[in-house]
């Protein structure tokens, strides 16, 4: 098994992490942030679990497509010789129950039926494949990765894989006959190339520079560090690494703002001297202009913010 497209923190989650350290969130935005964070942790657990897939296959993670003006997202696919496996990963925790095709938490709150999401994604994926000349068999599975999840009144549905079934499901996958050729690699390349893009900035809470708390955040626990750059959680880093990471945060949050010594000094809340900030900027970026009106140009490989 080969991972052709690895999983990364989504741009939206990355931006929300930066913002959450520096401002309070309205309740709806906080709930979305927490759901994205929990979902990503579940996907990471799935990635660890999928390392035991032994067949000749290709895995692609975090795919976003648009078909017939409809955008849909797929957590992971596994391309084998004769089957494309689609996986929808859920990190639900606690007790849930079913009434008909409606899903509820034990407290009675309604949640979207994840089977409907799985069926919709499969339908759209089939259309995408057909549009590009492929007619491959698709098997779709809803993976509940959290061992602390339980569903009352659960139906007998082979598309649902509960935590206690993960080992047996892995055995089933590893019994799948599979020998890939160039056509399978071409299919994987086609899927990667057909991805669409959605701006991560559209669903963020409202924010502006003046209202955000300034300082250097620990990359692990996201609390602010003092001038020693030693966090209470035990993490410590060199000044250059901390400043460059803070510049990256600034670039993500304000992609259209110019990088200047004074701006970064203020963004870091004077944690390091202006002289230190200027030296780090000069060593890593090109300066454009003359005197105070000038600013630093961010290299393409450094500027990973998606507009």
Automatic annotation (TrEMBL):
InterPro entries: NERD
Lineage top rank: taxon: Bacteria
Pfam families reported for this sequence: NERD
PROSITE patterns per the UniProt record, alphabetical: NERD (PS50965)
NERD domain location: 38-148
Protein name: NERD domain-containing protein
Source species: Schinkia azotoformans LMG 9581
Taxonomic placement: Bacteria, Bacillati, Bacillota, Bacilli, Bacillales
């Amino acid at each position: 098994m080969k991972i052709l497209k690895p999983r990364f923190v989504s741009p939206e989650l990355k931006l929300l992490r930066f913002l959450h350290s520096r401002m309070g969130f309205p309740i709806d935005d906080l709930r979305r942030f927490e759901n994205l964070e929990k979902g990503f942790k579940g996907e990471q657990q799935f990635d660890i679990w999928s390392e035991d897939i032994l067949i000749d296959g290709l895995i692609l993670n975090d795919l976003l497509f648009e078909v017939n003006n409809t955008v849909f997202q797929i957590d992971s696919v596994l391309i084998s010789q004769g089957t494309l496996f689609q996986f929808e990963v859920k990190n639900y925790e606690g007790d849930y129950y079913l009434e008909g095709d409606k899903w509820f938490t034990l407290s009675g709150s309604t949640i979207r039926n994840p089977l409907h999401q799985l069926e919709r994604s499969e339908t759209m994926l089939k259309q995408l494949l057909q549009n590009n000349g492929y007619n491959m068999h698709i098997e779709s599975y809803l993976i509940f990765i959290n061992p602390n999840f339980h569903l009352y009144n659960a139906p007998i549905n082979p598309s649902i894989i509960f935590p206690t079934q993960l080992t047996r499901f892995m055995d089933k996958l590893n019994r799948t006959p599979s020998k890939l050729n160039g056509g399978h690699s071409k299919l994987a390349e086609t899927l990667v190339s057909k991805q669409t893009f959605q701006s991560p900035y559209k669903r963020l809470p409202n924010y502006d520079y003046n209202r955000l708390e300034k300082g250097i955040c620990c990359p692990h626990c996201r609390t602010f560090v003092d001038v020693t750059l030693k966090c209470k959680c035990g993490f410590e880093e060199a000044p250059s690494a901390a400043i460059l990471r803070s510049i990256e945060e600034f670039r993500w949050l304000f992609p259209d703002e110019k990088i200047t010594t004074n701006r970064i000094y203020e963004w870091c809340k004077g944690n390091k001297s202006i002289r230190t900030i200027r030296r780090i900027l000069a060593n890593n970026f090109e300066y454009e202009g003359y005197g105070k009106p000038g600013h630093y140009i961010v290299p393409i490989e450094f500027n990973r913010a998606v507009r």
